[in-house]
Design a protein that fits this description.
Largest sheet: none
Number of strands: 0
Shape: elongated
Radius of gyration: 20 Å
Oligomer: single chain
Distance between the termini: 57 Å
């Protein structure tokens, strides 16, 4: 008689655990997208916007080296360049907040590659 109750409890807990796991993944994804946008914003507005292109490339390379040593390969020069383009493409953070509820970073990378706003729409 206890077996059906155990099965029911197991199924209920299984649903609960999966639901929370999904929410946790979504929350991490959202926060990472926010981080990437803010990194792009910081680099663009504090370094690149005011400097020559060649100097900016060198700054991004050096910054990448420092961040990669401290935080790992996720901050490569290529990734920092994506973060900058992300900010340049979506300068209105409220758009990023709205879209990040439904899209992953991989989706944003695809949008960044598009040349025209009409294509992104």
């Amino acid at each position: 008689m206890i077996e059906p109750q155990l099965t029911s409890l197991h199924n209920s807990l299984q649903k609960l655990i999966r639901s929370v796991q999904k929410k946790a993944v979504q929350a991490v994804n959202r926060e990472m997208i926010y981080l990437y946008w803010h990194i792009g914003y910081e680099i663009e507005t504090h370094i690149l916007h005011a400097e020559r292109a060649e100097y900016g490339k060198e700054v991004v390379k050096n910054l990448s080296n420092k961040l990669s040593m401290e935080f790992g390969k996720g901050f490569s020069k290529v990734n920092l360049t994506y973060f900058i383009r992300f900010y340049q493409t979506f300068q209105d953070f409220s758009i990023v907040q709205t879209l990040s509820e439904q899209l992953s970073w991989s989706h944003f990378v695809l949008f960044i590659a598009l040349k025209e706003d009409i294509q992104r729409m």
